[in-house]
Design brief:
single chain, alpha/beta, elongated, binds calcium ion, 2 domains, 27 strands, five-stranded parallel beta barrel
């Protein structure tokens, strides 16, 4: 029994010392683990603080309305701050120093940096921020905030198409492009072109932010400071802004001919309605404070040699093919049109072929659309008769917009009260023509990038070639002959943003600061 007891004791001792050894090594492991965990936590904390630094740098750029940060082109602007600000720190992180730097690299691009240290662990982040870069909506031949719809076999699109709501196709259109929709891509019957392949269709895509033109003051500052202008036959019709000086007529008619085209140079703002027709040349963007009217053709005098890059059948063109086309044509005519209210195509006063306005346009525009900002989705707040400005004031004008009416289409003053109206023109029909017949081939050409955060609408009775983009919140365009959309790739953000941008015509921006890229040093 004793022996037995002794052996039990020995065994116990051995067991206890074994436990002690094990315990010591467990202790070692857990101390190392804890050290690793602490280090990881410090890394995360330092990362978080640096990220806060990048955000503060972006905020400083946004606040810099006078552009004083643009002076820091060789030595960066430096600042050290703490999250606690002027108050007391709520935890140890809030009293850590965050060092930020801002270096202006030209073309409204800033390189920002931020460094923070927690318990000897340092993290440095950098980002390239562009101010006022053109909205991503310009990457598309057709972009609609609410509901994209191609309902005709006579529609052919070259260039990507997108909607923040549904995108519906009916009666067999041809879509040589990628298709993006915030909800469903609805295909009723067949569609043709490589967009018919599901690999080029992207339902449930993130919504793209629309530029908001409710406040044109930024664009007016650009127009004035860079002396944007519109000249016809040696006569300067717009010098910066039209309608800002006492007695200046804010409504303007622009009609260009082959010999005396509309010459545009940079950004110009016309505070009222503007009617644009005929031949146009130069590079720039025309902002209208109310409606833009496109009663006829808009034709580049010196446009790209071909209307688009060569599209192979069954797939998109290669990036290199597109880039060559863009580079070859970067100095050719290129005009953006941006309207605070609506863009009206053709002759809206014509009594025939008005079905489109009654059945579609007049059923759109109401802002009681719910939290998602898109009509017809039955989400929270949609159609409840309550206007929640926080998410339903889509155009930011502070009041609830209702459905469009005939007043939406009409000029704000009689045509006879517009500046630069040619003599002999009395009624809108004297200028407008739904089916262009003056061109040798009888086709209608609408060149340019057309943007409105309200409706783009009208009637196109002749075969029409849009050479650019149609971008709007609502779209109600009637067609009864071929409509071909040729995206102008020179407008793509690949070529209009960043340090190596090729093109700058002053298109509207969506976000004041766009991060082009960011990295950890
Ligand atoms: Ca003026
Ligand atoms: Ca909705
Ligand atoms: Ca509502
Ligand atoms: Ca509103």
């Amino acid at each position: 029994m004793r022996n037995q007891k002794g052996s039990v004791l020995i065994i116990s001792l051995v067991f206890i010392s074994a436990l002690a050894v094990l315990g010591a090594s467990f202790l070692k492991i857990s101390i190392t683990d804890a050290k690793n965990a602490q280090r990881q936590m410090d890394q995360q904390r330092a990362f978080f603080l640096s990220e806060a630094g990048i955000q503060r740098a972006s905020w400083l750029i946004k606040q810099d309305s006078g552009g004083s940060l643009k002076a820091y082109t060789s030595d960066p602007y430096l600042e050290t701050f703490q999250l606690q600000g002027n108050g007391a720190a709520l935890n140890s992180l809030e009293s850590e120093n965050i060092n930020i730097s801002i270096l202006y690299t030209g073309n409204d691009i800033y390189q920002v940096g931020a460094t923070a240290q927690v318990n000897g662990v340092t993290k440095t982040l950098s980002a390239l921020n562009e101010r006022y870069s053109p909205g991503k909506v310009f990457d598309y031949a057709y972009f609609i905030n609410n509901w994209g719809w191609f309902y005709a076999s006579i529609i052919t699109a070259y260039g990507d198409v997108r909607s923040n709501g549904r995108f519906d196709f009916k009666y067999g259109p041809t879509v040589n492009s990628e298709i993006y929709a915030g909800y469903e891509v609805g295909i009723n019957g067949s569609i043709y072109g490589y967009g018919s392949q599901t690999e080029y269709q992207y339902p449930d895509s993130d919504g793209l932010e629309m530029p908001n033109l409710n406040d044109l003051s930024y664009y007016e500052n650009v127009a004035t400071s860079k002396s944007g202008s519109i000249i016809i036959n040696g006569l300067t019709l717009v010098n910066g802004v039209l309608g800002d000086d006492g007695g200046e007529n804010e409504n303007l008619v622009l009609i260009g001919t082959v010999t005396d085209p509309i010459e545009i140079n940079g950004t110009v703002v016309i505070r009222g309605d503007v009617i644009v027709s005929g031949y146009i040349t130069g590079q720039g963007t025309i902002y209208a404070g109310r409606n833009l009217y496109v009663p006829n053709n808009v034709i580049y005098v010196d446009g790209p040699a071909t209307t688009k890059p060569t599209y192979p059948s069954g797939s998109p063109p290669d990036d290199s093919v597109i880039k060559t086309w863009v580079t070859d044509n970067k100095d050719k005519d290129l005009v953006g049109f941006a309207a605070t209210e609506n863009i009206v195509l053709g002759d809206y006063t014509k009594s025939s072929n008005q079905w489109i306005f009654n059945s579609y346009l007049y059923g759109m525009g109401d802002e009681d659309v719910g939290e998602d900002g898109i009509p017809g989705t039955s989400d929270t707040g949609e159609g409840d008769g309550v206007f929640t400005a926080q998410y339903e004031d889509l155009d930011g004008d502070g009041v609830k917009d209702n459905n469009y009416t005939s007043a939406t289409l009409q000029t704000q003053v009689a045509l006879s009260s517009f500046a630069n109206l040619p003599s002999g023109m009395i009624n809108y029909a004297d200028i407008a023509n739904n089916s262009e017949t003056t061109l040798p081939d009888g086709n209608k050409i609408i060149s340019g990038v057309y943007y409105t955060n309200h409706a783009m609408t009208g009637m196109l009775e002749g075969s029409t070639n849009v050479r650019g983009s149609i971008i709007s919140k609502d779209e109600a365009i009637g067609i009864n002959a071929m409509l071909t959309l040729d995206y102008d790739w020179r407008m793509h953000s690949k070529y209009t943003t960043g340090q190596n941008k090729l093109i700058d015509v002053g298109l509207p921006f969506s976000k004041e600061i766009e991060t082009l890229r960011w990295w950890e040093n």
